[in-house]
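Budget justification aside, the reviewers requested a transparent look at the raw inputs and outputs of the sequence design task funded under Objective 1. We therefore reproduce one unedited record. The lines immediately below are the structure tokens for a 93-residue chain.
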């Protein structure tokens, strides 16, 4: 049986792929001892679904909501804009 607390979703350093991996804390640097195949598309898709669901819930509470922004500790942001509000290709901004 898998002990999920031993696994993390991580981004590989060399290939920049998102994987599910078992992390070992041997020495001063953590190392990956077991990992899945590339799950980037699947995990990014799950994050997109999560943000869309959060937006839909917010939209029910506040009909004026036009998107959703997650802000990270380093100041970076991840923004969800619903497709119906996305700029149309070729349209002037």
């Amino acid at each position: 049986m898998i002990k999920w607390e031993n696994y993390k979703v991580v981004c590989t350093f060399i290939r920049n792929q998102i994987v599910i991996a078992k992390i070992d804390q041997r020495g001063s640097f953590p190392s990956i001892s077991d990992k899945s195949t590339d799950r980037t598309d699947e995990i990014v898709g799950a994050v997109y679904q999560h943000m869309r669901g959060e937006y839909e819930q917010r939209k029910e509470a506040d009909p004026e909501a036009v998107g959703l922004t997650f802000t990270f500790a380093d100041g970076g942001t991840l923004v969800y804009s619903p497709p119906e509000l996305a700029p149309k290709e070729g349209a002037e901004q």
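The mean pLDDT is 87. Residues 40-61 form the longest helix (22 residues). Computational costs for records of this kind are itemized in the attached budget.
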